[in-house]
Design brief:
By secondary structure, this protein is α/β, with parallel strands linked by helices. The chain has 9 helices and 7 strands; from the N terminus they run ααβαβαββαβααβααβ. The chain has a single domain, classed as 3-Layer(aba) Sandwich (Rossmann fold), CATH 3.40.50. Strands 3-2-1-4-5-7-6 form a 7-stranded mixed sheet, with helices on both faces. Helix 4 links the parallel strand 2 and strand 3. Helix 2 packs across helix 3 and helix 8 packs antiparallel against helix 9.
Length: 275
């Protein structure tokens, strides 16, 4: 089988006698342990985003809830940025550090295992990002405000957020997309308009596609199967088996058809007084 750029060596999380001080739920560490990118973007989408932002060598980038650090590591390699990533997952933080070493950029990027909620950089940055975890600020508006506190004048905020490709006709379909209600997400035009109401210009955007959703969701299935083979008696085995049995149909029926995802580049609107 040919090797792909996004493939990683799987190190399955093992249960430890004591719970870690800080971590994401263990089920997420299991299902996404082989992911380099923990959202529907693919490596080419991150490359497109970096080019679209016109990154320059030595630009400072902050990535909150950075996952396994792929964005920072590849941008450090390709554009010469320096950056800091913060994530709660012990596994993802360790993977990010290994990725930086593998790409020869460990001196340019730093990864902090910690809570991204409330994190503010001690030095102002050119790009402040949260690509897919706006829960850290209690939603989009709160996360934008959190990122703004680390941003230099003239810098760019990056927000990754889902949107409805088509509005689900029923609440049942919305729940099939793992939303609680249809109101959880906006359609793309309304999402873009919402940034303006917060006082920001949308200066770029890069959208994921259905293939990206497949790479994010379908990659979990083989990981779950391999984990089950290695851990048949684990306390989470039954739950993982249930997800493996149900997730392919759920994804093909709901997420792939109804849910979009994108990264939106924002700059404070000229003349708009920020709080």
């Amino acid at each position: 089988m040919p090797a792909h750029d996004w493939a990683v060596t799987i190190v399955f999380p093992q249960r430890k006698p004591t719970q870690p001080l800080m971590d994401i739920p263990r089920l997420f560490n299991i299902t996404e342990s082989a992911h380099r990118i923990h959202n529907p973007f693919t490596p080419d989408k991150f490359a497109t985003l970096g080019a679209a932002l016109r990154l320059e060598p030595e630009d400072r980038v902050l990535d909150l809830a950075c996952g396994s650090g792929e964005m920072l590591c590849t941008w450090a390699r390709d554009y010469g940025i320096v950056g800091t990533g913060v994530d709660m997952s012990q596994l993802f933080s360790a993977q990010a550090k290994r990725r930086a070493e593998a790409l020869g950029v460990a001196e340019r990027v730093e990864f902090i295992h910690g809570d991204a909620a409330g994190y503010v950089s001690g030095e102002k940055v050119d790009v402040a990002a949260c690509v897919g975890a706006t829960w850290i600020g209690g939603g989009v508006a709160g996360t934008i405000e959190l990122l703004r506190r680390s941003l230099r004048h003239g810098g760019i905020i990056l927000i990754g957020e889902p949107y409805w490709r088509q509005l689900p006709p029923t609440e049942e379909i919305a729940r099939g997309c793992l939303a609680q209600t249809r109101a959880d997400f906006l359609e793309l035009p309304e999402l873009v308009a919402s940034f303006g109401r917060l006082g920001y210009d949308v200066v770029e955007m890069v959208l994921a596609n259905q293939d990206g959703w497949d790479r994010y969701e379908a990659a979990k299935w083989l990981t779950m199967r391999r984990w089950l083979e290695a851990n048949p008696d684990d306390e989470l085995a039954e739950e993982v088996q249930a997800k493996l049995a149900s997730e392919p149909v759920r994804h093909a029926t709901y997420t792939r058809e109804y849910l979009g995802w994108g990264v939106f580049a924002l700059m404070p609107r000229l003349g708009h007084k920020q709080p």
